[in-house]
Amino acid sequence: MLSICSAYLASNCLLENAIVPTNLAKSPNVEVEQYFCRGKRDYFNYKLSSALTNFYHALRRDPHYGNIYFFRGNSYVLLGDLPNAIANFNFLLRLKPDFSNAHLVYANRGSAYARSGNYRAAIADYTQSIKLNGSTPLVRENRGFAYYFSGSPQAAIADFQAEGRLFRFKFPQMMELIEAVRHQDESKIKTIWPIVAPNRGQEMKGC
């Protein structure tokens, strides 16, 4: 696990915790947008180490580029580096309180908290995400898991029901989860906390 600055406030601290191969060829003439787009492509192709390298070089050129912290936080969640993921989401929310995809930041930070076992913080973030955008898939489902593992099975059932009503194609899956909760059958309860990723086609526009 990489070291983390305790306050998570300084962008240069976050840069120090980036994964950067020592043999990377330097390209000083490449603009921040080019690095950012390269990083996004790598992220969507699950080339996460390469994505983090490109995000690092983009931030070296513009440490106030909010979208980079968003995708870098997502990359760290997928890598299981949850402290670094939370650090990037925290910094982004301080840097850009009006970030256009703030509902996804809260949802994804909630997933990082949930994977860390901090279900109370996860529930708070999922709830804030729903307040900002109530039609995002997976958020209520994930909050349901957080409720269940925090000892609130009825709240979990309510969220699974809501997810099934909003997204009808998921209704059978949600009903199975509800039955598992009612019968306390943890072997059937999914414990995966997926990233609520932005639409690939939309996010790659301009790159």
From TrEMBL:
PROSITE patterns: TPR (PS50005)
Coiled-coil ranges per UniProt: none
TPR repeat windows: 66-99, 103-136
SMART domains assigned to the protein according to its UniProt record, in alphabetical order: TPR
Record flagged with keyword Repeat: yes
TM annotation in the entry: none
Alphabetical keyword list: Repeat, TPR repeat
Protein name: Tetratricopeptide repeat protein
Species: Floridaenema fluviatile BLCC-F154
